[in-house]
Specification:
elongated, 2 domains, single chain, 3 helices, two-stranded antiparallel ribbon, 76 residues, 30s Ribosomal Protein S14, Chain N, mainly alpha
Length: 76
Amino acid sequence: MTASDWNKILKQLKNKPVKRDKFLKHNKPQEKTTGIARNKCEKCGRFGAHIKSYGLNLCRQCFREMAEEIGFKKYS
């Protein structure tokens, strides 16, 4: 079921709360528990190269942009 189908069905069931609740009970998307799509960057939404140390939840590209603002120093 695509996102557009999902929205169309919910619009049709807006005035029928009992049927809408039954539809949602059996057909709503489940919460991700494993896999790459579970962890997203909080800033841009990317999946890969995720840094979750210190509770950052950023991808590596966003981390490089924000590192000095957060308080990390670059040693080289």
